[in-house]
Amino acid sequence: MLRDALPQIITPLPGPKAKAIIARRGEAVPEAVKCVYPCVIKRGEGAMFEDVDGNIFLDWVGGVGVLNIGYSHPEVIAAVREQAGNYFHAMMNIVTHEGYIKLAEKMNRIIPVKGEKSKTMFVNSGAEAVENAVKIAKSYTGRPNIIVFSGAFHGRTLLAATMTSKKAYAHGLGPFPDGIYRAEFPYLFRGPKGYTEAESIAYYLEKLYKVFEEASPAEYVAAIVFEPVQGEGGFIPAPLEWAKAVRRLCDEKGILMIVDEVQTGFARSGRMFVANYWAEAGFAPDIIATAKSIAGGIPLSAVTARAEIFDGVKSGIIGGTFGGNALACASALKVIEIIERDNLCARSLEIEGKCRERFQLWQEKYEEVGDVRGIGCMMGLEFVTDKTSRNPNPQLVARIIASAAGQGLIVENAGIYGNVIRFLCPLVVTDAQLARGLEILESALETCRQN
Question: Is the pTM value of this prediction over 0.90?
Answer without folding.
Answer: yes
